[in-house]
From TrEMBL:
The lineage of its organism: Bacteria, Bacillati, Actinomycetota, Actinomycetes, Kitasatosporales. GO terms for molecular function: histidine-tRNA ligase activity. The gene is hisS. InterPro entries: aa-tRNA-synth_II (IPR006195), aa-tRNA-synth_II/BPL/LPL (IPR045864), Anticodon-bd (IPR004154), Anticodon-bd_dom_sf (IPR036621), His-tRNA-ligase (IPR015807), HisRS-like_core (IPR041715), HisRS/HisZ (IPR004516), HisRS_anticodon (IPR033656). Keywords: Aminoacyl-tRNA synthetase, ATP-binding, Cytoplasm, Ligase, Nucleotide-binding, Protein biosynthesis. This is Histidine--tRNA ligase. It catalyses: tRNA(His) + L-histidine + ATP = L-histidyl-tRNA(His) + AMP + diphosphate + H(+). The keyword Ubl conjugation does not apply. It is an enzyme of class 6 (ligase). It comes from the Bacteria.
Length: 420
C-alpha cells in the first residue's frame, strides 16, 4: 500500500467490479440514445452562483454540501453537485434552444461531488447518468423520460425498483399552497433550523425524515389538494401515458426532493434493498430554472440516475450482469521467438475484434497458465520451440482442457471457429 488512501467518502472502481459500472452507464444511456437524446459533457466545476441560484440558496446541497474554491484569478467555483443546472447553462450558452428544434434533448454521464456524511450508498464523489428535455411543456415528455428510466432499470434485470410520483404545482397554485402549508407548520413544535426552513422553503419540511417531525406532519395540507386546473390535467396526462406504457407508479403526495427548481411532475425511483439511501434516481419538471439562471422561459424536464446505487441495487437483488468476457483468448509464449509470433497473433486477433491478451514478462508455463485461467478466457494459445519448428501453435480449450495443434499462419481463423 502507498502512503495515501482515497479521500473519505470516495472509493475506486477497480476491475473486475468496475465492469458492472460501465455496464450500468451503458444500460441507462442506451434507451436515451435511441430516443433522440444527444450527448453533452460539461466541466466538472462551474461558477458557484449557477448552483446557488439554480439549485436553491436554502437547499442542503448549496448550504452544506458544495465543494467550493477560489481560483488564483479570484473566481469562485464549485465542483458540480448535480447535472441539470450545468446542462441547461451549456444549452443556453450554445443557443441550442434557438435552433428552432424544441425540445432540446440531451443526456450526460459523469462524476458529482457533495460534502455529505458518508454511509452505505452515500458518497462524496458519485456517478450519475442524466437526461434533460429542454423547452417544451408537454406531459408526453415527462412520461417519455420516466418510461426511459424504467426501461433502463428493467433492461438491467432489476425487479424491485418502485416509482414514486407527485406534482409540485406551478407558479399559479404553489404560492397559495405554500402559504397554507406555512400556516400549518408554524403551529408545530419544531426546532430553530426547521422553523427557519418553514419560512424559506416549507415544502422541504415535508421531506423531513425524523420521527418526531414526521409524526406532526400527519395532517399536513398536501399540494395535490391545491393544484390548479392546468397542473391537475397536466399531471393526469402524465399518469395516463405511464399507465398506457405499462409503467407502474405510486402516487406519493409527500415527495418533494432536495432541489428547489422543480415544478409540476416530480418523481423518484426507490429500491427497498438499499436501506436509508433508497433513492436510485429521480427528477422532474423545472419550468422556472432557465429564467432563474438568466435565460428565457424554457419549460423543461429531466432526471438523474445514480450509477453507484444502481450497482448496489443489482447486488441487493443478486442480479449478475451478462457481461462480455474481458478476454476471450490468452496467449502464452514460451521463449523469445514464440513471443514474437504470438504478439503478432494477438494483434491480428484484436484487429479482427477478438478480445485477446498475452502473457508478458517472460513468465514460465505454470504462472502464465494461471493468468490465462484468471483472465476468464475460453481459449489459450501456447507456443514453445518445438511448436515453432513444426509451424504450429497449441490451441487449448480452458474449460474442457482439450488441446490441439493449429497452423501458425491460420490462428485467427482457428480461434474464430473455436469461439463459434
Ligand atoms: P439527486 O440529484 O439528489 O436527485 O440525486 C439523483 C441520484 O443520484 C440519487 O437518486 C442517487 O442515486 C444519486 N446520488 C445522489 N447523491 C448521492 C451520493 N451522495 N452518493 C451516491 N449517490 C448519490
Amino acid at each position: 500500500m502507498s502512503t495515501f488512501r482515497a479521500p473519505k467518502g470516495t472509493y475506486d472502481l477497480i476491475p473486475p467490479d468496475s465492469a458492472a459500472y460501465l455496464a450500468v452507464r451503458e444500460a441507462i444511456s442506451a434507451p436515451l440514445r435511441r430516443s433522440g437524446y444527444g450527448y453533452v459533457e460539461t466541466p466538472g466545476f462551474e461558477h458557484v452562483e449557477l448552483f446557488s441560484r439554480g439549485v436553491g440558496e436554502s437547499t442542503d446541497i448549496v448550504t452544506k454540501e458544495m465543494y467550493t474554491l477560489t481560483t488564483r484569478g479570484g473566481d469562485r467555483l464549485a465542483l458540480r453537485p448535480e447535472g441539470t443546472a450545468s446542462v441547461l447553462r451549456a444549452a443556453l450558452e450554445a443557443s441550442l434552444h434557438k435552433a428552432g428544434n424544441l425540445p432540446v434533448k440531451l443526456w450526460y454521464s459523469g462524476s458529482y461531488y457533495r460534502y455529505e456524511r458518508p454511509q452505505a450508498g452515500r458518497y462524496r464523489h458519485f456517478s450519475q447518468v442524466g437526461a434533460e428535455a429542454i423547452g417544451a411543456e408537454d406531459p408526453a415528455l415527462d412520461a417519455e423520460l420516466i418510461v426511459l428510466a424504467a426501461d433502463a432499470y428493467r433492461s438491467l434485470g432489476l425487479r424491485d425498483v418502485r416509482l414514486l410520483l407527485n406534482s409540485l404545482g406551478d407558479q399559479e397554485c404553489r404560492p397559495g399552497y405554500r402559504a397554507v402549508l406555512q400556516d400549518f407548520l408554524r403551529g408545530l413544535d419544531l426546532d430553530e433550523e426547521t422553523l427557519r426552513r418553514v419560512e424559506i422553503n416549507p415544502l422541504r419540511v415535508l421531506d423531513d425524515k425524523r420521527e418526531a417531525v414526521r409524526k406532526q406532519l400527519a395532517g399536513a395540507p398536501m399540494m395535490r389538494d391545491h393544484l390548479c386546473e392546468a397542473c391537475k390535467s397536466f399531471h393526469e396526462r402524465v399518469r395516463d401515458l405511464l399507465t398506457a406504457a405499462g409503467v407502474a407508479f405510486e402516487d406519493d403526495p409527500r415527495l418533494v426532493r432536495g432541489l428547489d427548481y422543480y415544478t409540476r411532475t416530480t418523481f423518484e425511483f426507490v429500491h427497498d434493498g438499499l436501506g436509508a439511501q433508497s433513492a436510485v434516481g429521480g427528477g422532474g419538471r423545472y419550468d422556472g430554472l432557465s429564467e432563474m439562471i438568466g435565460g428565457p422561459a424554457l419549460p423543461s424536464v429531466g432526471w438523474a440516475l445514480g450509477v453507484d446505487r444502481t450497482v448496489l441495487a443489482l447486488e441487493a437483488e443478486g442480479v449478475t450482469l451478462d457481461l462480455p468476457a474481458a478476454t476471450e483468448v490468452y496467449a502464452v509464449p514460451l521463449g523469445e521467438e514464440a513471443r514474437d509470433l504470438l504478439f503478432g497473433a494477438v494483434t491480428a486477433l484484436r484487429r479482427a475484434g477478438v478480445a485477446a491478451d498475452l502473457s508478458y514478462g517472460g513468465r514460465g508455463l505454470k504462472g502464465a497458465m494461471k493468468s490465462a485461467n484468471r483472465s476468464g478466457a475460453r481459449l489459450a494459445l501456447v507456443a514453445g520451440e518445438r511448436d515453432l519448428a513444426e509451424g504450429v501453435v497449441q490451441l487449448k480449450d480452458l474449460e474442457s482442457g482439450e488441446q490441439r495443434a493449429v497452423p501458425a499462419d491460420g490462428i485467427t481463423a482457428a480461434v474464430r471457429e473455436a469461439l463459434g
